[in-house]
Amino acid sequence: MAIERVAVLGAGSWGTTFAKVIADSGPEVVLWARRQDVASEITETRVNSGYLPGISLPANLAATADAAKALDGADAVVLAVPSQTLRVNLSAWKELLPPDATLVSLSKGVELGTLKRMSEVIREVAGVDESQVAVVSGPNLAKEIAVGQPTATVIACTDHDRAVDLQHACSNSYFRPYTNTDVVGCELGGACKNVIALACGMAAGMGYGDNTMASIITRGLAETARLGAALGADPLTFAGLAGLGDLVATCASPLSRNRSFGERLGRGETLAQAQEAAHGQVAEGVKSCSSIRELAAKHGVDMPITEGVHQVCHDGLSVRELGAALLGRDRKHERQ
Ligand SMILES: NC(=O)C1=CN([C@@H]2O[C@H](COP(=O)(O)OP(=O)(O)OC[C@H]3O[C@@H](n4cnc5c(N)ncnc54)[C@H](O)[C@@H]3O)[C@@H](O)[C@H]2O)C=CC1
Ligand SMILES: O=C(CO)COP(=O)(O)O
Q1: Which residues contact 122 (CB under 8 A, 6 or more apart)?
Q2: Of 57, 144, 202, 252, which has the most beta carbons under 10 Å away?
């Protein structure tokens, strides 16, 4: 089914940017903002200055603070709120969802408490089959895409045809989506890389260079793939855009909120100071390190970097102690 009208719920960095990507690809887009002043600013000036200063949004992108208006007649509903708020937000929108619309998750996280992936939360709250839920994940730093820098991504859905419809709705001269049916692998790649980016940021903040970075990225990918194997993901997904691609972009970029957050901790700032510096924007790994750690324990998977990041963020371990703990572990084979 051709997608002609899309609702994007969440007007933060990625929600606004992805709304622009779709509008630039052809469909009509209605962007829901939690705050009326953000919706009004976009309507009146075509700019969301709080999240994407200087970026002019296209004419086929409308904004509203009324979710019913955004969702009316939508062929696809894109969910672009922080992971830990998805359940509450979606519960409020549930009755307004058009029955056959593709529900698309942009969020990269694992829910605290339930240990569910975002597509699982969507299925549960909306009461839909897994074939109706898609996930977008890949090396997608919003600020680069907003200025039209070329980027690829993955649209994952167990229903290949649905993924292809969505692929058509968001393909343009700067944005190239691939399809994949491995939803589990794509979601785990997106959630875990935020935690590994925190660790890379900590190392950078301590003054370490590229060898340390590459070591954390590679071993971070190894532990992500181990978790993926336990949860039934396709191992090759982790060599793709939603695995290695996103991991490299996030761990290396000063634009990443997770990496920047970790860097502040590495320089000796407290969690509260790093949180304040994020200006209300979400660094998903700070919470997901705990849910991913618990998910790994539940499945008997060893994730030492995730464990260490959790201890730094929530158990008072210092970044120096984390480095020593990781290097002091038992020696082992690379593929163990
Ligand atoms: N910014 C980026 O470059 C990318 C972000 N993502 C993912 O997309 C998701 C959304 O991220 P961003 O748009 O960047 O986040 P953001 O922090 O820039 O914006 C979050 C948006 O959600 C809204 N929101 C609704 N309910 C909320 C609540 N209860 N608490 C806080 N905010 C609430 C906020 O008003 C805001 O518009 C995250 O899971 C993130 O990991 C994925 C790819 C790229
Ligand atoms: O997911 C992202 C890039 O793909 C954005 O990363 P941050 O949330 O760390 O900014």
Answers
A1: 79, 86, 90, 103, 105, 128, 133
A2: 202
Instruction: Report which ligand 1 atom has the smallest distance to the Cα of 16.
Output: 13
| Average pLDDT per block of 10 residues along the chain, 336 residues long | 96 98 98 98 98 98 98 98 98 98 98 98 98 98 98 98 98 98 98 98 98 98 98 98 98 97 97 92 94 98 98 97 96 91
ipTM surpassing 0.90, yes or no? yes
d(CA 301, CA 229): 9
Domains, the chain, with CATH or none: 5-181 (3.40.50.720), 189-327 (1.10.1040.10)
Concerning whether 193 is annotated as a catalytic residue, the answer is: yes
Of the listed 69, 193, 298, 332, which one is catalytic?
193
CA of 335 to the centre of ligand 1 (A): 35
Query: What three-state secondary structure class fits 65?
Result: coil
Asked whether 197 lines ligand 2 (CB < 6 A), one says yes
Alpha-carbon torsion (164, 167, 171, 176), positive or negative: negative
Q: Do 121 and 103 meet the contact criterion of CB atoms below 8 Å apart?
A: no
How many Å apart are CA 323 and CA 262, to the nearest integer? 13
Cα(168)–Cα(171) distance, rounded to whole angstroms? 6
The residues facing 104 across adjacent strands are: 78, 134
Contact between 178 and 201 (Cβ < 8 Å): no
**pTM for this model (two decimals):** 0.98
